[in-house]
Amino acid sequence: MINVLFADDHEMVRIGVSAYLSAQKDINVIAEADDGGDAVRLALKLKPDIILMDLVMKEMDGIEATRQIIQQWPEAKIIIVTSFLDDDKVYPALEAGAASYMLKTSKASEIAEAIRATYQGQSILEPEVTGKIMNRMRSKNDEYLHNQLTDRETEILLLIAQGKSNQEIADELFIAVKTVKVHVSNILGKLQVQDRTQAVIYAFNNNLV
């Protein structure tokens, strides 16, 4: 049996979901909490296999409850079940240690499958959450890429974005055209782009110009 603690401040939600889950042959809801503080207390006392955690609750929200549980019991497996997909909810919840992130619009059967998967060590995320994470990773990766540029390379990238040729850049910076070509090659390599046009697009997309 997979023992579950369900924390949600809406009684009707708890009753409905708990009834469905307890009807499963392999899932048992052993306790319910209507507040984050109660969720922390019960989680540390009962050590359930899975914790279903709402985010917006009175007294203590689900993010802080998740953080406190993970700090005191790192092995805890917490599934966020919420109505919110805002950045200020998704990222803090995952950073606090939540293993999976589900929406309340999910079917009860989908939550049951998420419980089974999370219990087995998988991470179940709503498609929208996965998209947010991928975009954030790409953003961080892009930031890392252009942070590799030297001051001179950044200066040349901005001049390229202005449409200047290698000769014009050389004249403006008082350096040889051959030196400009070397810098341009380095810029393309560091930004992982194929040509000057892609480098300019990168510069605009990352607010460098």
Automatic annotation (TrEMBL):
<dbReference type="InterPro" id="IPR016032">
    <property type="entry name" value="Sig_transdc_resp-reg_C-effctor"/>
</dbReference>
<dbReference type="InterPro" id="IPR011006">
    <property type="entry name" value="CheY-like_superfamily"/>
</dbReference>
<dbReference type="InterPro" id="IPR001789">
    <property type="entry name" value="Sig_transdc_resp-reg_receiver"/>
</dbReference>
<dbReference type="Pfam" id="PF00196">
    <property type="entry name" value="GerE"/>
</dbReference>
<keyword id="KW-0238">DNA-binding</keyword>
<dbReference type="InterPro" id="IPR039420">
    <property type="entry name" value="WalR-like"/>
</dbReference>
<keyword id="KW-0805">Transcription regulation</keyword>
<feature type="modified residue" description="4-aspartylphosphate">
    <location>
        <position position="54"/>
    </location>
</feature>
<dbReference type="InterPro" id="IPR058245">
    <property type="entry name" value="NreC/VraR/RcsB-like_REC"/>
</dbReference>
<keyword id="KW-0804">Transcription</keyword>
<dbReference type="InterPro" id="IPR000792">
    <property type="entry name" value="Tscrpt_reg_LuxR_C"/>
</dbReference>
<feature type="domain" description="HTH luxR-type">
    <location>
        <begin position="142"/>
        <end position="207"/>
    </location>
</feature>
<protein>
    <submittedName>
        <fullName>Response regulator transcription factor</fullName>
    </submittedName>
</protein>
<feature type="domain" description="Response regulatory">
    <location>
        <begin position="3"/>
        <end position="119"/>
    </location>
</feature>
<keyword id="KW-0597">Phosphoprotein</keyword>
<dbReference type="Pfam" id="PF00072">
    <property type="entry name" value="Response_reg"/>
</dbReference>
